[in-house]
Amino acid sequence: MIPSPPTLHVVGTEMVVGSFALSGACFLLALLGSLQIWKFHMIQKKVDTIAHGALVFGLLATPLAILSGIQSSPGDGIQSTILATKMLLAMSGVGLALAILVVRMKQGIDLWNQTFASIAHAMFGMMAVGMILLTASLGGRFSRGESLLDFAHLPYDTLFLASGWFSAVLLLIGLANIVMYIRRGSAIEH
Amino acid sequence: MNSSLKTLVLFVSLLCISSFSQANPGGVGPSTQDMQCGGACHGDADLNATSPFTIQLAQTSTAYAGLPMSINVEVSNLDQMQINVLGVFLLTDTTGFEDTPEDDGWAIVSNSEGGDENYAEAQPTSTSFDIGWVLKPPSEPGTFTFFASIHHGSVDQSGTPYFGISNEPLTIEVLPVPENLPRIDPETVLPNQRNNGEHTTFTLSTLEVETVLVEWRLQEGETHIFNATNIGEQQWEVTIPATLTPHIVEWRVTLEGNDIVQTSPWLQISSLSNNVEIDNSMLYLQSFALLVFSCGFYLGLTTLLPSKSKNEDKRIVPLDDMDEHNGGEEA
């Protein structure tokens, strides 16, 4: 039997949430180890591998979760502030996670030997994880009317939908930063 | 094939499978649809199985040209099959092309599911399900036929789409409006949606009317009655109270004039908490922009960070030396 989009969405979100949660926990451990708050040099390298490995797996499962989520949402396309906010949060989280992986690939494990870089890397890693987990939490609010984050009284009826030109500016700034990063990398190699 | 590629192929395959599903088990939402949705709801119409449900149409108020009237669609024998979502179409023919009431000059004012389209979805909980449409007939009298059709799936066979259509068409004769008939001005725009928690106040324009009695109720709830306030020549102010939760309020008016009493059909005003009109293309653009921006933001930030190694401070054991600490297990 062919699985329906809602079923695939459940499978997809479970994979995404599980992977990202594991990744977030490992980023926290890596940061604690790197700052010597919790000294466990023996597993520092493993924690780094798990954090980024889980992030890769979560990123692979994210398109499945997003596309099956759009397919199983009621109505044509997205017509709910919660679903639209989920979309924006998920994509922001994916972008951040991609950058985390690129930086890790570029700098290698030596990244954890640099004070500011290690703090930034772990913090942004956990931020990406937080965005994805918040996205999943909003899904619970949409489908069941409640979520673990209800205590925070989030503005579920509010959607920050910008105009086209603002999105274009964001896009250009992002692309400029990516180009700057690539050029800097190739300049160092030369 | 390396493991990353295998994983990628697996996920792409899963995505493809989901788009090849023959139906939309979650429904497509209230919308204006020709019969069979032009293939958009249930893939290929030839793959539809015949629904075991019975569909009956009934005209529930007299149709005068340009004045609101109502049609009821009853879907029964729902105990024949367990379903999640039932989609109901109100149609003026069965060609599958330009067969909506709008195509025949009718305007849909509201329906009992809270929309103003000819296709509505519901999740029935008993053995029969009723849905009512309030429509404005064309301004010219005439005879019209209506059909109702349904789409649904099955809990037991979720891959099979089902289709059903009313056995007999409903013939409606639209009568010319008697000159002295107290009535709602055909030009009046009747509200059918509002934001949750807001009162609805609107001006009802009438013709040949001396008094206006307004009744409102929650669906299946107690009926409340009040007199509309006269604010001008054949102008009446009507206020429908707010609902605190998403709900559909039904209202109707009883118009008196020229010793004639005329009652409108029950009209619906739905209040939904967070359903809004969202431009999806703008949303997707902003989503993609945020993806690129957040990616670029961190990448750009790393170019600004000082790259002083902590090893230079000799604060921690160099990572390169870890393998030695771990007994060279990585080697």
How are the secondary structure elements laid out?
The complex is a heterodimer of chains A (190) and B (331).
Chain A lengths: L4 H30 L6 H32 L8 H27 L7 H30 L19 H26 L1
Helix pairs in contact in A: 1-2, 1-4, 2-3, 3-4
Chain B lengths: L2 H17 L29 E2 L3 E6 L9 E8 L9 E6 L15 E5 L7 E4 L6 E8 L5 E11 L9 E4 L4 E5 L8 E2 L8 E3 L4 E8 L3 E8 L5 E4 L1 E4 L2 E6 L6 E11 L2 E4 L3 E6 L7 H25 L5 H4 L8 H4 L6
Parallel strand pairs in B: 1-9, 12-20
Antiparallel strand pairs in B: 2-3, 3-7, 4-6, 4-8, 5-7, 8-9, 8-10, 11-13, 13-17, 14-15, 14-18, 16-17, 18-19, 18-20
Can you tell me the residue ranges of chain B where pLDDT is under 50 for at least 5 consecutive residues?
312-318, 322-331
Gyration radius from CA atoms of chain B, angstroms = 29 Å
Number of separate helices of chain A: 5
Give the proportion of residues in helices of chain A.
Answer: over 70%
Oligomer: heterodimer
**Name of the CATH architecture of the largest domain in chain A:** Up-down Bundle
Give the H and E element order of chain A: HHHHH
Distance N terminus to C terminus of chain A?
55 Å
How does the helix and strand content of chain B classify structurally? Answer: alpha+beta
**Most residues in contact, chain pair and counts:** A-B, 80 and 68 residues
Task: Look up the CATH topology of the largest domain in chain B.
Answer: Immunoglobulin-like
The CATH H-level superfamily of the largest domain in chain B is: Immunoglobulins
Q: Which second-level CATH architecture of the largest domain in chain B applies?
A: Sandwich
Q: In percent terms, what proportion of residues of chain A is strand?
A: under 5%
N-end to C-end Cα span of chain B: 25 Å
